[in-house]
C-alpha cells in the first residue's frame, strides 16, 4: 500500500475544486537525512504537503520550489518538487528551537518565495511575507496575490505523517463566493487525525456528504534527490582548473556533499582530468 498519494476532486454543482495529499514514506525519507528539531520536522512536513498541493495546480511540465527564509534561528527551509510529484527538501538552523515554536519564532522577519520553472517558457516567482499566523495562511495570501482566486489551505504534520487540503474557486463567469464560503467552512472542520488515518473517500464523505463530489484517481508522491556525479562535476567546473588543482594538491581529492540527501561524491586527480578533458570517468559516490 502506498502511503503517499494526492487526490484531486471537484464539485459537480459549483465551480470549486479541491485536493487532498497524504504523506508518510516520502516525509520520513526527507527527515532521515538530518536530525531536525521537532518544530522543523513539523514545518518540513507542512512544506512537503504544501508543495505537493501547489504542484498539482500547475498546468505545465516543470519544477516548483517553495522556500522560506528569514533572520531567525531557522535561516532556510525549502522543498523542491515537479509535475510528477517528486519531492525533496532541506532546512538550515543555527540555534535551539522550542518544540512549539511558531513560524515567526523560527524565521523572525522572513518571507516565502515560490518559484515555478516550466520546462518550456519563462520562470515565474512570487514572494509573500511570513507575518501570517501559519504556513497555510501565507500560502492563501500567495494565491490571493498571484491567482486572485479564493483559496483555502489546511496543513498538518506530526513528524511521522503529513497531510494537506486545498480548496479553490475555479475561474467562472458566475459569482461563486457564497458556495466557496460554505464549502470552506465544511473543510475547516477537518482534523489532523482524520487526514492521517482516513482514506480520501472517507474524508470527502466526512466533509461533504450532502454535496455532489467527484474524486479522481490518485497520483503517487515520492521522494527522490536529483543530485548526481554529473551535476557535482558540473559544479566543480564552475571553478577555474587552477583553483581545482590547488585543492587537489592540498587534499588529494575533492568531495561534494549533497545538502538534501547527504550523499557524497568524490573526485580524485584522474576524475578531475577527465572532467576538464570532456571524457567520462567512473562515478564515485559514498
From TrEMBL:
Keywords: Chaperone, Cytoplasm, Disulfide bond, Redox-active center, Zinc. Disulfide bonds join 225-227, 258-261. It is found in: Cytoplasm. It holds the Pfam family HSP33. The keyword Chaperone applies. SUPFAM superfamilies: Hsp33 domain, HSP33 redox switch-like. Under oxidizing conditions two disulfide bonds are formed involving the reactive cysteines. Under reducing conditions zinc is bound to the reactive cysteines and the protein is inactive. The keyword Oxidoreductase does not apply. InterPro entries: Heat_shock_Hsp33, Heat_shock_Hsp33_C, Heat_shock_Hsp33_N, Hsp33_helix_hairpin_bin_dom_sf. NCBIfam families: PRK00114.1. Redox regulated molecular chaperone. Protects both thermally unfolding and oxidatively damaged proteins from irreversible aggregation. Plays an important role in the bacterial defense system toward oxidative stress. PANTHER family: 33 KDA CHAPERONIN (PTHR30111). Belongs to the HSP33 family. This is 33 kDa chaperonin. The lineage of its organism: Bacteria, Pseudomonadati, Pseudomonadota, Gammaproteobacteria, Alteromonadales. The gene is hslO.
Amino acid at each position: 500500500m502506498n502511503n503517499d498519494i494526492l487526490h484531486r476532486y471537484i464539485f459537480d454543482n459549483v465551480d470549486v475544486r479541491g485536493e487532498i495529499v497524504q504523506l508518510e514514506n516520502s516525509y520520513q525519507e526527507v527527515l532521515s537525512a538530518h536530525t531536525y528539531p521537532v518544530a522543523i520536522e513539523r514545518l518540513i512536513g507542512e512544506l512537503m504537503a504544501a508543495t505537493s498541493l501547489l504542484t498539482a495546480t500547475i498546468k505545465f511540465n516543470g519544477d516548483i520550489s517553495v522556500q522560506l527564509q528569514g533572520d531567525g534561528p531557522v535561516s532556510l527551509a525549502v522543498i523542491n518538487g515537479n509535475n510528477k510529484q517528486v519531492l525533496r527538501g532541506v532546512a538550515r538552523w543555527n540555534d535551539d528551537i522550542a518544540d512549539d515554536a511558531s513560524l515567526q519564532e523560527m524565521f523572525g522577519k522572513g518571507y516565502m518565495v515560490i518559484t515555478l520553472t516550466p520546462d518550456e517558457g519563462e520562470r515565474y516567482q512570487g514572494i509573500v511575507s511570513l507575518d501570517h499566523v501559519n504556513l497555510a495562511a501565507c500560502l492563501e495570501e500567495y494565491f490571493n496575490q498571484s491567482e486572485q482566486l479564493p483559496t483555502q489551505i489546511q496543513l498538518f504534520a506530526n513528524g511521522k505523517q503529513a497531510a494537506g487540503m486545498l480548496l479553490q474557486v475555479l475561474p467562472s463567469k458566475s459569482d461563486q463566493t457564497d458556495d466557496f464560503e460554505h464549502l470552506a467552512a465544511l473543510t475547516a472542520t477537518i482534523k489532523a487525525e482524520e487526514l492521517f488515518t482516513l482514506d480520501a473517500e472517507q474524508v470527502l464523505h466526512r466533509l461533504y456528504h450532502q454535496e455532489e463530489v467527484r474524486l479522481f484517481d490518485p497520483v503517487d508522491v515520492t521522494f527522490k534527490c536529483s543530485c548526481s556525479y554529473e551535476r557535482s562535476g558540473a559544479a566543480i567546473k564552475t571553478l577555474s582548473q587552477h583553483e581545482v588543482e590547488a585543492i587537489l594538491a592540498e587534499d588529494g581529492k575533492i568531495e561534494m556533499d549533497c545538502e538534501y540527501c547527504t550523499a557524497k561524491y568524490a573526485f580524485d586527480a584522474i576524475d578531475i582530468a577527465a572532467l576538464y578533458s570532456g571524457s567520462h570517468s567512473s562515478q564515485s559516490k559514498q
